[in-house]
Amino acid sequence: MAYRMQTSVPEVADLSKESPATLAMYGDSVKTPGSFAANCLQARRLIEKGVRFVQLFHQGWDQHGGLPGGITRQCKQTDQASAALIKDLKQRGLLEDTLVIWGGEFGRTAYSQGKITANNYGRDHHPRCFSLWMAGGGVKGGQAYGQTDEFGYNIVKDPVHVHDLHATMQHLLGVDHERQTFKFQGRYYRLTDIAGTVVKGVIA
Fold this sequence. Notes:
Radius of gyration: 19 Å
Number of helices: 5
Structural class: alpha+beta
Shape: globular
Oligomer: single chain
Largest sheet: 2 strands, antiparallel
Number of strands: 8
């Protein structure tokens, strides 16, 4: 895999052979090296080359202040490109075997933090409940799994612990998380600690 990565990087970074329609699908910033759109397109190209794990980062979401402008800017940078990646993988027959996971570090409160003005307020961290989305790779599409109360503060239906999420991700990748258990210094460990249940409701 290391050899394949080294030999394919220049080719993956060269977007000159992509069609105008594909570039337009990812958005104007796709031609800007290092942009999220460019990274999404390069992720598709890496997947085409057989790279098994690709991770993208997009920083700057920690908006304790300046939320209206910040969230608008961040979504403009990521929404179109994220949707394009899913569409692109699907039209090339790659989505069925590719698990796409889009999530952040943490949940955010649904209510405001700091001084509230018309165009400047923020949101604090919120560990009780937060959302992510998955597509492809055996995931059941077109549904929302789990539910919070009306304030978005507590989970009221179908909770998924982080260990459950990891167990489910491993299941979708063909790995039985319970078989990864090992003993170290008198304690049993695995990637899901000693917990985690596969969430059957999100599997196609």
